[in-house]
């Protein structure tokens, strides 16, 4: 099973989602990666505020580097979780088939089914925004992991 987390820049939200889910699943059978719909931060480390909040919760995400989402990701991944409705629509626009489209989900529908809630973009805010994002993603990833770990 291969899971991709997607946000805009792949430096704030999706690196946290990747790190949190990776810590909850067996890396021998589950691959977790992340990408951004924009390539604006390609090659960069996660934002220092994401690195810090992850570290506060015992996770090291400094092995990650930002990359842009590509159409080939539809072939490589089974599930594609987007952080907000903008990411969701940008990824859906790249779909080639119904099978591609069926892989794309809003991550907070795991905690709030059918509500299509956004993980708020914390980039222009303060550190509290990152704490808030971390908690939302922790809850969502716990549910994702429990589904994967008990098939
Ligand atoms: P992310 O946050 O999508 O959670 O990685 C952002 C990172 C960078 C920008 C916007 C959002 N930016 O405009 O550069």
UniProtKB/TrEMBL annotation:
EC number: 3.1.3.48
Keywords: Hydrolase, Protein phosphatase
MF annotations from Gene Ontology: protein tyrosine phosphatase activity
Enzyme class: hydrolase
SUPFAM superfamilies named among the record's database cross-references: Phosphotyrosine protein phosphatases I
Record carries keyword Hydrolase: yes
Ranges for domain Phosphotyrosine protein phosphatase I: 1-147
CDD domains assigned: LMWPTP
The UniProt record lists the keyword Hydrolase: yes
Pfam families given in the database record: LMWPc
InterPro entries given in the database record: LMW_PTPase (IPR050438), Ptyr_pPase (IPR023485), Ptyr_pPase_sf (IPR036196), Tyr_phospatase_low_mol_wt (IPR017867)
UniProt family annotation: Belongs to the low molecular weight phosphotyrosine protein phosphatase family.
Protein name: protein-tyrosine-phosphatase
